[in-house]
Give the backbone structure.
Amino acid sequence: MGLVSAYIYGTEKKPQPPVFNPASNPYAKGIYATGIVESYQKNGENMNIYPEVPGTVTKIIVSEGESVHQGAPLIMIDDSVQRATVEQQKSQAEAALALLEELRAQPRQENLDIAKAQVELAIASLKTSQDQLDKQKRSYELDPKSVSKDTLDNTTNAVKVAKANLDVVRKQYELTKAGAWTYDIRNQEKQYNALSKAYMASDALLAKYTIKAPADGVILSIKAAVGSFISAQGVYGTYTQGFDPVLVMGSPQNYIGVRCYIDEILVHRMPQGSQMKAKMFIRGTDISIPLEYVRTQPYVSPKIELSNQRTERVDVRVLPVIFRFEKPKNISLYPGQLVDVYIGEK
């Protein structure tokens, strides 16, 4: 039994073949970098969309994976208060315009007719008073006892009052005929312009309550739901315990981008862009895809893109290098996927 046990336990078991071959350096002097698949952009990364106004989401128009065109509505935010404000300011601007048109349309014909009639009445009153005075003077000249001095003086004063009244109503007629004062018109124009601009500003702000696509692209991620409160900081993530973009959009082009992070101790070994070649290995498979060099971000930053840890014991810094490749038809790749990248020299 001892010999049999020793033989059984001493027999070496053949190791099982690996599920996939681990990525190996295809270049003699290649350097390794961790890469992240992203939508290909000429500048920047994926399009992170934040609302310009805070509010509660009332409707989500698009779905993840949907292609959209520039200006297409994506998410609607509750705009009841802002809409009421716009209607109020619109009414105020319309009222100011109506008053301005009223001032410009002066004099009103009805008012002008009344002022003219008052002038004619004043002329008639003056003529009546003057005729009465002339009669009393002739009677006084014939017989001084026929008209008392007091009556003659009262009639003379009545003529003077009628003349003054005629002068007043004539000036009133000229004032009515002249129309609105130019300073009143100018002041009302300023009021109308101010209210119109306030209305246009509120109307423009109302349009911000509908989030629209900034460019043609594909909806990669929607973090908000109907009833969620969103702001310029984004939406609170239930699992991340932080604020995330409300939507993430990618480019609709036929290329896919790969953002590689090269450790600072390997930067000196990195070849020039024109002499650079690279190959990407998809984790968990034996698939490798050649990459095309696009650009290098000339700024070495702390390596927090993957872990999001801003307090690290060791300050590891990396240099971002961007590659691209044509989207394969028979391979499923998604933005945010980690890949292994080896960079060599032509």
About this structure: The radius of gyration is 45 Å. The chain has four domains: 20-40+253-345, 47-77+209-250, 82-102+188-207, 107-179.
